[in-house]
Amino acid sequence: MNSSLYINLLKKVLIDYHRMELGEYKPVYFTHPSLKSKVFIAFDNYLRSRNLAVCKVVKFKKEERINGVDWPAYADSMVGMKRIDNIEFCFREVIKNNVPGDFIETGVWRGGSVIFMKALLKDAGINNRVVWVADSFEGLPKPNDEKYEADKGDIHYIFKELAIPLETVKYNFSKYDLLDDNVKFLKGWFKDTLPVAPINKLAILRLDGDMYESTMDGLVNLYSKLSVGGFIIIDDWGVVEACKKAVIDFRTKHNITEEIVTIDQAGVYWRKEKQI
Ligand SMILES: C[S@@+](CC[C@H](N)C(=O)[O-])C[C@H]1O[C@@H](n2cnc3c(N)ncnc32)[C@H](O)[C@@H]1O
User: Fold this and answer.
1) pLDDT tens track for 48-68
2) Residue whose CA is closest, atom 20 of ligand 1?
């Protein structure tokens, strides 16, 4: 990819890659819950239920930051280098092929991936595409076991680290000089915000809501708005079984046969070839 120095530097800053060589140890890098053992989860739950701080000092693992399988303490995005590169790849393809539509991420955490989308647009001098930022800004919902069997026992909702307030995400955009009227926020649960979101067309649809329900809400409400030639990116395919199941169920129901391309241990994408 022919990235500018600005874009390459921004990627490193957004995912905290630039600290890599500074020291061997970094505090409080959480590992994704799907990678934790049941015993650890039980212990973690016990400590949290008693409001005991869980402060760990763990080894900074270069491979984890490249593949984005940790929960980084300071980065503005959890994605690693491979998935942030993929956002740039999708962006360049969309622009090269004049694929119409806005960009969205459902599940933004501190905002790093959507901040990067906005940076790519601004760097290319494009100001007629909106970046949509969809999140509860309160973390994940409790699993709705009755409606979504696959989410039974999901514990993402207990993690305070995943609840980043709207004001913090806005601040994160502004600290990179990237907050303007073409960044639009959809605050609330996806099941409430996505069906009524005033979005016409999308060129990039990035789903990062971890759970079956959150992934399915994104697919049901937004996939039909994705332009042919546009990209859908599923952040959690390789690390959250329920997310993968939602994607498979949706693809089967709508006979979606486009090839799924692996980005890294977690993320996949495909380019939409036909309308459903
Ligand atoms: C893993 S984080 C997203 C990471 C982010 N994309 C990044 O680049 O670092 C998941 C986010 O999805 C949000 N989320 C998950 N399910 C949701 C739902 N059903 N409605 C609203 N927000 C949801 C959470 O609040 C959280 O911010």
Assistant:
1) 565 554 444 455 567 777 888
2) 189
